[in-house]
Amino acid sequence: MPEINNNLHAVVAKLELMQEYFSRLDLILSHPEKEIVDDLTLRAAMERNFQLIVDAAIDINTALIQEKKAQPSDDYQGTFVILASTGIIPHELAFAMAPSVGLRNALVHVYEKLDPARVVHDVKRNIGQYREYMGYIFKYVETSDKNK
């Protein structure tokens, strides 16, 4: 098998981590929404795994932007748009995903008191986009590996 470069190795490692985070998040989201809202431990685990998924995607975006020698982004949201400009993910997906970075920031930096029901709703709404994103990234890595 051909050797893939360090950026793609980093991407593959992050994809593997994302799969782990998804496994945990899926277990949490299998609980009724009210139970997640009312159970601080479940809610904190959901928030943390969502944050880790977003962080991994941002790291992947950064590595692939470097790989493609594209202009780096000034912010995390912009990494999705720049990645789309390279053709790796569709623009529609990038624009749909970019705002989820705001939720990640709110969770990490606690900019304001967040409504737990809204957070659960937003995580459930956004998580499918990350699954779709992973499909595009896997496809890109596979194609890149075959072309080397």
From TrEMBL:
Keyword Nuclease: yes
InterPro entries assigned: HepT-like, HepT-like_sf, Type_VII_TA_RNase
Gene Ontology molecular function terms on file: hydrolase activity; RNA nuclease activity
Keywords tagged on the record: Hydrolase, Nuclease, Toxin-antitoxin system
Superkingdom assignment: Bacteria
One Pfam family it belongs to: HepT-like
Cellular component per GO, a single term: toxin-antitoxin complex
Similarity comment: family membership: Belongs to the HepT RNase toxin family.
This protein's name: DUF86 domain-containing protein
